[in-house]
Amino acid sequence: MSNIIKPTVGRKVWYRPCKDDLIGLGAMACSATQDEPAQGQPLDATIIAVWGDRMVNVLVTDVMGKQFPVLSVDLLQAGDEPRKDVDGKIAGRYVEWMPYQQGQAAKAELPAIQPSADALSASAGFARTAS
Questions:
Q1: What pLDDT, in 10s, does the model give residues 7-26?
Q2: Which of 45, 55, 79, 111 is the most buried (most CB within 10 A)?
Q3: Nearest-angstrom CA–CA distance, 31 and 34
Q4: Helix or strand run (H / E) with residue 108
C-alpha cells in the first residue's frame, strides 16, 4: 500500500519555513519563531513546478499576503520526517500535505467492499417476495 500523493501544479500544501526565511529585509511574516521556525502555524503554498514525488517549487503566501517563490523544496509524504541537524532540530524548509488531503488519499486506497454471495441472494429473494 503506497502513501504517496502525486504532486501536481496548482495543488495546495502547507509550507514550513526555515530560519533563513524569517530574517532579513525580505523575511516572511509568520507565527513561527526563529528558534523553531517549523513549529508555528504553516503558511499557504501552491505547487508551481514538480521535480518528483518529494521535490517541488512552490509559491508561498505569508500571513501578510506577501508572496515568495521557493524553489526545490522537500515535499514530505505520509510517514516522512523532516531533515534534522546534529542537535535534533528541524533543518531546512519543507512542505507537507494537509491532513484533509492525506485523509482523502487514505480513503482512495481502501479496498472496495464486495457484497457476499449470501447478501446478493438474500436481496434477490426479497425483491421477488416484495412484488
A1: 999 999 999 998 888 888 88
A2: 45
A3: 10
A4: helix 99-109
